[in-house]
């Protein structure tokens, strides 16, 4: 009996938020500057539905910033005179005249300015951002919202490094400095989720949503909490809200695909996986997920195609090889299955399922010694693995 290497059905992916420079200050005087000379489209979300236009030269206030999945900058603008929200516009076509706080006019080449820019620059590496944000935080020059943004950004870096203790410290301080900043609660909720403290994670995501109901990330992340609590329907509701807020949110589509799959609603799961792949055609994780659905509904040729794409995109990752190997075995093509498991084991020699499944393929081919060696290795890695015990029993061999 081969064992299934599929992804855990209820494992969702969460995101922490990284804030750009506009989150660090209120840019109060900005102008629409569209180089094409045409009115600037106003949208419901970054790159979302068009709901109006703004003429060139219109004065606006930037209320929020974000980016779409391609990394393009978008700004949420309001009327200049009273800050009444208007909508999202392409950030490159809005020019603001306010400098970043604590930097003197004309001093944009200063070390302080450079570190602040690195802390907020989406193109900086995690290591560069950690150094830049640390300089900003430790300089003592910043306070209030700007300091909270720097702390939240460094918290994001620390989460990615899995340094949860220091991340919590930064995010707690960010909340003390500016308790109205949703980023800090979202990122801290993610840390609590990683630690398995789902009640505190839920409380933080709830607060992030209360503070900013247009913020899609905490809805996506809160869905992970609902799934850990066994409430798939609430998870789907939150993921649907995240998608309504950001129709280009690839991860929310992929996560909702997982959630529909958990409910065995494979048709709707497939729709969401297809949408995620359409938005991000080079993301191997979604092909891996869709391949597991094809496998579950016994569309083996489609599963082969998806797992082959995973291998093409990430040839040095064992996941594509071991999953495709299983499909070959299900199609009774043992030689091809063995070849894929050979490669999977070279890349990840710690996976018991790969040895077990290759052992059963060898058993099917009459390769008794190879099968025995694989079953024993699988049991060494995962004592008590029933499929390997059954294989040895069939051969009349003790573990």
* Beta strands, count: 7
Mean pLDDT: 84
Look at the structure and name the CATH superfamily of the largest domain: Tetratricopeptide repeat domain
**The level-1 CATH class of the largest domain:** Mainly Alpha
What is the count of DSSP helices, taking H or I runs of 4+ residues? 17
Topology (elements, then pairings):
Elements: E1 30-32, E2 40-43, E3 50-54, E4 59-67, E5 73-79, E6 85-90, E7 94-96, H1 111-120, H2 126-139, H3 144-160, H4 164-177, H5 182-194, H6 198-211, H7 216-228, H8 232-245, H9 250-262, H10 266-279, H11 284-296, H12 300-313, H13 318-330, H14 334-347, H15 352-365, H16 368-381, H17 386-395
Helix pairs in contact: 1-2, 2-3, 3-4, 3-5, 4-5, 5-6, 5-7, 6-7, 7-8, 8-9, 9-10, 9-11, 10-11, 11-12, 11-13, 12-13, 13-14, 14-15, 15-16, 16-17
Please characterize this protein's 3D structure.
There is one protein chain. With 399 residues, this protein is α+β, with helices and mostly antiparallel strands. The protein folds into 3 domains: 26-96, SH3 type barrels (Roll), CATH 2.30.30.170; 111-251, Tetratricopeptide repeat domain (Serine Threonine Protein Phosphatase 5, Tetratricopeptide repeat); 298-395, Serine Threonine Protein Phosphatase 5, Tetratricopeptide repeat (Alpha Horseshoe), CATH 1.25.40. 57% of the residues lie in helices and 9% in strands. The chain contains 17 helices and 7 strands. It has helices at residues 111-120, 126-139, 144-160, 164-177, 182-194, 198-211, 216-228, 232-245, 250-262, 266-279, 284-296, 300-313, 318-330, 334-347, 352-365, 368-381, 386-395, and strands spanning 30-32, 40-43, 50-54, 59-67, 73-79, 85-90, 94-96. The chain has a 5-stranded antiparallel sheet with strand order 6-5-4-1-7, with no helix packed on it. Strands 2-3 form a two-stranded antiparallel sheet. Strand 5 and strand 6 form a beta hairpin. Helix 5 (182-194) packs antiparallel against helix 6, helix 11 (284-296) packs antiparallel against helix 12 (300-313) and helix 12 packs antiparallel against helix 13 (318-330). The longest helix has 17 residues, at 144-160. The protein starts with 29 loop residues before the first strand and ends with a helix. Residues 6-11, 18-28 and 97-109 have low confidence and may be disordered.
